[in-house]
Amino acid sequence: MATIYYTGCTLDGFIATDDHSLDWLTSRDIDMDGPMAYPGFSERTGACVMGANTWQWILDHDDDPWGPKPTWVVTHRDFAPSKQVRFTDAAVADVHAEMTEVADGKDLWIVGGGELVGQFHDLGLLDEVWVQFAPVTIGSGAPVLPRHVELRLEETARNLDFMCGRYSVVR
Ligand SMILES: NC(=O)c1ccc[n+]([C@@H]2O[C@H](COP(=O)([O-])OP(=O)(O)OC[C@H]3O[C@@H](n4cnc5c(N)ncnc54)[C@H](OP(=O)(O)O)[C@@H]3O)[C@@H](O)[C@H]2O)c1
Fold first, then answer.
1. Which CATH number fits the domain that encloses residue 64?
2. Which of 25-29, 59-63, 153-157 has the lowest mean pLDDT?
3. In terms of pTM, does the model score above 0.85?
4. Which residues span the domain enclosing 150?
5. Which of 130, 134, 157, 169 could disulfide-link to 6, CB 3.0 to 4.6 Å?
């Protein structure tokens, strides 16, 4: 079981624009059956966690918000209840322990944002980073991982518009 940050990213290191747009990402071509694509990745994960702005983006853009995967949203806000989603302001270490319990040996997915990923890394709980780099720079936005994290490049692939990298965290 590994705890993995899986995300799309601009070439200059942002996962969303300053106003939380992902148009630069969703407008690109990716082969869903190709290397490092989402369906194959999702298959191996048993639970996921995200921050409040990422959940808000899903509410704003998805007609059928989220699937059946057990999901934790860390927040201080009062979101409307949603099936399979636990809203919590518990310590990140406790959230990780709860996720591990329900994931049944499968990997854990940190959806983002980057600061939340950093909180897991601060506790030594981040194992891998998978990034799909889109062919674009946007100058500013939500940073991919605002920490100093040493990584080892384990795997690379091209998937249509994307340059994909899988990295392990060096401890
Ligand atoms: N490119 C991609 O593939 C990708 C992937 C993921 C996300 N995104 C996008 O990137 C942007 C990320 O936004 P963001 O950087 O602001 O990050 P975020 O993690 O989605 O949201 C940050 C907010 O989550 C809450 N939070 C974070 N850690 C917490 C903790 N330990 N306990 C309680 N609450 C906590 C806080 O809000 P409150 O205190 O107000 O609750 C915080 O301001 C979004 O637009 C999202 O859609 C893109």
1. 3.40.430.10
2. 59-63
3. yes
4. 3-169
5. 130
